[in-house]
Specification:
By secondary structure, the protein is α/β, with parallel strands linked by helices. It folds into 3 domains: 6-17 and 50-308, P-loop containing nucleotide triphosphate hydrolases (Rossmann fold); 312-372, no CATH class; 378-483, no CATH class. Helix content is 33%, strand content 18%. Strands 5-4-8-10-3-11-12-13-14 form a 9-stranded mixed sheet. A 3-stranded mixed sheet has the order 7-6-9. A two-stranded antiparallel sheet has the order 1-2.
Length: 485
């Protein structure tokens, strides 16, 4: 497919007569990107990427709606600070990287004052480095022509402007081309829609074309575009935060809404309170609500106050503290998803400081990589030896799940067990010593015939019923190396 090139489009100031404009190239070939479903099914799907987990997807356009003077611009600036400094954004950890803000409502002096209030509490932390903010750039467009696209009078289509081309050129120098496999975060914040869009917000085709331009820009540079928007009166009254044509909500892959907290009587409870709602999320569940309070020039979590701005190091320390606490209490946690999954257990704990499961997952990955924690077998030595024997047997025979070991142990003999075996089960044929396929003094184990594929040790363990674990598999738990004996 031909790469998107903004120079393919012509833009003329709205006041210039359209009769003298050259016709657009209608003979430009169209190249289709076609995928074979069977080829996709046979390959590993790429992992979904987020700039802010569960809220802002990577390389897509997200709408950020909010009432006038409701705190959108301030919250967006806090997002830029969090992404470049490694701190959290209202309890969510953005992917660390670069951020560019096109500020069309707040001039440089106002941005300076707000940035000072945001950074002040962070600068007292030893792990905060103000030099990290060099990756946050703000373009002051107050009082300037800030349209990125407008309606072409001849074709009646939305076309990009010279400013759009300039932004593309700056992105190319500031962020550069995306390198596949690179985990660097990239966010472009456009503040606001009414200042950058020159079409009719109520005409669906124009809306779709404009979002299409932004989508191509997002894909080309692998940058998440956050488009700040004002809701319509209907959107305010219904609480949806929608604006203009339904094309906005349909074209945007995600949409969040910052609004005041309203009582059942329809009155604002506190002018300092705000709630951030996930109204749409094409790649995950919607409906999450984050309660915020304005405090000393910035927004903070209601429950966490100013202590909510946790860095990666602070979350890592919290993970280790909770792991030590769980270990002392005899509540072992594991790396694999499922029962006792460490990030899930810690995020629900009272001392988890409302850190999300995704944030604890990233912390666990960092700690494992640094060898500060390990996943180790747990249980008596006899169980560990028996576990390895069962693992070897399963690897040779291609089976993965034990069926009711406790019930099988009560059968008087293997022949009787075979005659009484439930449907869809079979015994393990093997030439190995019996100690590797049965518990000493117990009959041969029974496993479902429908299970054919071999899985890693931890998945085998996670599939075992509780009554079988004490006989067959040792539990894999997380430990801090310094506490291991």
């Amino acid at each position: 497919m031909k790469p998107f090139n903004s120079s393919d489009f012509d833009y003329y100031p709205p006041g210039e007569p359209w009769t003298d404009r050259p016709a657009r190239n209608s003979e430009q070939p169209i190249v289709l990107k076609i995928f074979k479903a069977n080829q996709l099914a046979k390959t590993e799907a790429p992992e979904r990427e987020w700039e802010v987990p569960g809220i802002i997807p990577a390389a897509r356009v997200t709408g950020f709606c909010g009432d006038g003077a409701g705190g959108k611009s301030l919250s967006a600036l806090q997002l830029g600070v969090a992404q470049t400094s490694g701190t959290d954004w209202f309890g969510k950890l953005p992917r660390i990287g670069k951020c560019l803000i096109l500020s069309c409502e707040d001039d440089g002096d106002e941005v300076h004052r707000r940035l000072r209030d945001i950074v002040a509490p962070l600068s007292r932390r030893e792990d905060f480095n103000v030099e990290d903010l060099r990756n946050l750039e703000i373009i002051d467009m107050v009082g300037e022509d800030s349209l990125l696209a407008c309606l072409d009078g001849r074709s009646h289509s939305i076309v990009p402007t010279k400013l759009y081309e300039k932004i593309v050129e700056h992105l190319d120098g500031f962020m550069g081309p995306h390198v596949k496999g690179c985990d660097e975060g990239r966010i472009l914040i456009l503040d606001t829609l009414s200042k950058v869009y020159g079409g009719d917000e109520n005409v669906r085709i124009q809306v779709t074309q404009f979002v299409g331009f932004l989508d191509r820009l997002a894909i080309k540079y692998h940058v998440a575009i956050v488009l700040l928007m004002h809701p319509s009166l209907a959107g305010i009254s219904t609480g949806t935060g929608s604006s203009g044509s339904t094309g906005w909500n349909g074209s945007l892959r995600a949409r969040i809404y910052l609004t005041a907290v309203i009582s059942e009587k329809g009155e604002e409870i506190d002018p300092c309170l705000r709630q951030l709602k996930v109204m749409k999320n094409n790649y995950g569940p919607a409906g999450e609500t984050i309660q915020l309070r304005w405090e000393k020039g910035r927004y903070v979590l209601v429950a966490g106050g100013s202590t909510s701005a946790l860095t990666n190091d602070e979350i890592d320390r919290l993970f280790l503290d909770l792991l030590e606490q769980f270990t002392r209490e005899g509540r072992n946690v594991v790396v694999a998803t499922g029962t006792s999954y460490a990030p899930a257990e810690f995020s629900k704990h009272a001392d988890g400081k409302r850190i999300s499961k995704e944030a604890f997952k990233r912390s666990m990955d960092r700690l494992l990589k640094k060898h500060k924690i390990k996943s180790v077998p747990y249980g008596p030595a006899s169980r560990l030896r028996l576990s390895q024997n069962w693992l070897n047997t399963f690897a040779c025979r291609g089976t993965t799940l034990i069926k009711n070991v406790k019930a099988a142990s009560l059968r008087a003999s293997n022949a009787m067990a075979m005659s009484e075996a439930p449907p869809n089960t079979m015994s393990i044929p093997t030439s190995r010593p019996s100690a590797q396929t049965s518990v000493p003094g117990k009959p041969e184990m029974m496993i479902p015939a429908r299970i054919k594929s071999m899985t890693p040790f931890t998945r085998i363990h996670s599939h075992l019923p509780d009554s079988s674990r004490r006989w067959a598999m040792a539990r894999m738990i997380i430990k801090i190396p310094s506490t291991m004996k």
